[in-house]
Queue: 2 jobs
Job 1
Amino acid sequence: MDISKIQSMVEDDGIVFISYGGFLTQSLISSMTEALEHEATLNGLGLGASNNIFTIFIELTQNMMNYSKSIKESCSDIVPGGLIVVSKSLDGNTYYVHSRNIISIEDKIKIEPKLQEIETLDGDQLKKRYRELRRSGANTHGKGGGIGFYEIAKKCNKIDYEFTKINESRYFFYLKTTINLNKKGE
Amino acid sequence: MENLIIEETKYTPLIKMDTNGTIELVGKSYPENTFEFYVPMMEWVKEYFETSAADVTTVNMEITYFNQVVLNYFLIFLIYLKRTMIKRS
């Protein structure tokens, strides 16, 4: 784990209210969503905003769970696991969902072009592209990382990502989404 | 043909399929294995319309959250219902 990165994300973003590192299971994910619901009620987030955060959180954590599984099956040299952090700015107007996990080079090859494409699209183009993919049935392999990233992009204001090489076949995949409550959340 | 009832969990909806013609899905849906979860429902619906459908079937879906994988299955389900409706009308 890159401790400096964790520290900096905490310092940059203000208040962290969910943070988990380790092996992800379905019941852990659903317990953490209860914490998200609690946060939404406590801060009076609208249905739109809380749904956006909820969607991003679940798509990301279920992705991580699936990538962890595929690594566990194919290779035992790296302990599968992930880091998920949900935080907000001090004024409470911006939420962030961060994830960081280890993926195989095969998964990187699948994910990276999608994220690169998403970066070039504006809101309307993104909606159009999402509908195309949905219709064509592509990316519907039933595991994570398919159409999910397009859905995430629709629900947030900004996606930042980074791949850091570990060795020939493994990468750290770091993803940060930014959700502004005023502009898009409500 | 028997009714199908699958109890609600934190991440899967209540599924209630009654041969009297009411089909109900209520809750959240982001299962760990979506395919396995929705197989019994799809099999029930197919058998129902092939063998023992009531004159009127009402489908009520109150899903407060579903993930992108589940959306695929809901679309398959709704397209199946639409095709069946056209066939029977």
Job 2
Amino acid sequence: MTLLSSAGSFTDATSSDASLHRFLHGLPGVDQVGVEQRAAGLGTRSIKTSAKEFAIDLAIRMVDLTTLEGSDTPGKVRALASKAMRPDPADQTCPPVAAVCVYPDMVPFAKETLGASGVRVASVATAFPSGRAARDVKLADVNDAVDAGADEIDMVIDRGAFLAGRYLEVYEEIAAVREACARPDGRSAHLKVIFETGELQTYDNVRRASWLAMLAGGHFIKTSTGKVQPAATLPVTLVMLEAVRDFREATGQMVGVKPAGGIRSTKDAIKYLVMVNETCGPDWLDPDWFRFGASTLLNDLLMQRTKMTTGRYSGPDYFTLD
Amino acid sequence: MVRTSSRTTERIDVRKTYKLYVGGSFPRSESGRSYAVTDARGRFWANASHASRKDARDAVTAARSAFGGWSARPAYNRGQVVYRIAEVLEDRRDQFEAELRAAEGATAAKARAQVDASVDRLVWYAGWADKLAQVTGGANPVAGPYFNHTAPEPSGVVAVVAPTSPLLGLVSVVAPVIVTGNTAVVIASEPYPLTSITLAEVMATSDVPGGVVNVLTGPQAEIAPWLASHMDVNGIDLTGVGDVELGRNLEIEAAENLKRVRRPGVEDLLATPALDRMTTFQEHKTVWHPMGL
């Protein structure tokens, strides 16, 4: 893409609302039929035996084990955190998941249980899931989560502003949240930017939002909150994967991708992994660069894993409900 | 292609594709395989789906998700549904008689007797739905100030290897399993799978919720071990297993998660059954409740 040849042009692109608008609308359009066909085609790959074992363990390590309910209690979060560290208590070789994803007020409980296990705590913030609040309130939300020890912040963009074409406002908000992610010790919480692609209407908008978030400094771009249907789909994730691939080509910086919501089966997860490998290459096949936002997915991965090791189909009775 | 003759236009046969019955719909085997079924005279009749272990797994998933709703229904209502199967079967008796004659080479009288017995068997089990609890459960006399009562509950998902007889055999093994609130994954008669799928069509149109009965066609030696070893299956009925060695292996596999196993000897399907087909796949809950004071 010649359009994205130099990093210098991005500084110009974000200098004003008009130039940002020009830049985002100058991105090549997404071929809807093509992207859906490509995603469907990649979904037909057959992944078996040792490749499947590898894929299942990788997918487990990529899971952001999520509970985002009004009814969350400290007890539930502690149980989830325990599960995150030892997803299959009956099998020592089962890897831990990447992170536990909770609301900001639940961060201390997750942190307390996870300790130095290496499993991170992700917290949603910025008036999740709608993002409808004043910027001060959103930033206070982020500060709360960061102060409580969250390692990762999942923010939602202001879809209203985005759809109305006020791109600079969205850009500045992401940048402001990124600043708020800084901790006193000098390190910064990782920022994941949620688009809620189900509300963005078109693939073109998804591509624009991806570039906007990457330009604003997001470490990860994430499809959905899980509260809106449709949530993550293969084609939407493909558009985002292409965006992070092109962004690295243009700037040398890697940005992670996190599909969230609606991924329930091992089969689905493996389709995503195939797509990551085929679109971005093996560099992204790592929990630092690709995550699944999910809760029920983990049990299915564990059941499949058990099937691979014992040779018999397992059942939901043998795994915790969460 | 349209075949025409000089005098009249012949109508092209509408050939039926016999598929599996899983979760209330009729999918092809995930494996895409099928096998040829011949009629009693050895001529090709139709292709039946050759179910794979993944079809068995999907059927168990469907049966598991149907279990909650089905087992929570009042026993009376389950009886009504099983009775409804009998009603619809009675309506389609001509089709079944014709199929039995073609498949097994049975005489008209014999085919009629089989359909009669199948309808009667369904009605018989339907009647038991809300009466079995009184027979196998009840209030227990205990020496203390307690009510003590025992209530039967369904086991869960039951795998059934159906006997050869395609209609009466299938009805005789499925009705007792579902009438008590279990859900069933059935491996249909291997030599006569088509009638079993026709019976599945009857069940699909008689208020049986999707997933309560799932019918797989294909070689039992290939499919049954996956069901016997499946950790989410709670019972297995080996009625249709003829091979002694296979039966033994299935019992061993079933022991892993303590499935309830039924492995009967030779039985006369036309005779009035005993209650044991129903009671095998029931569990009993006994409750102590303080009284008096």
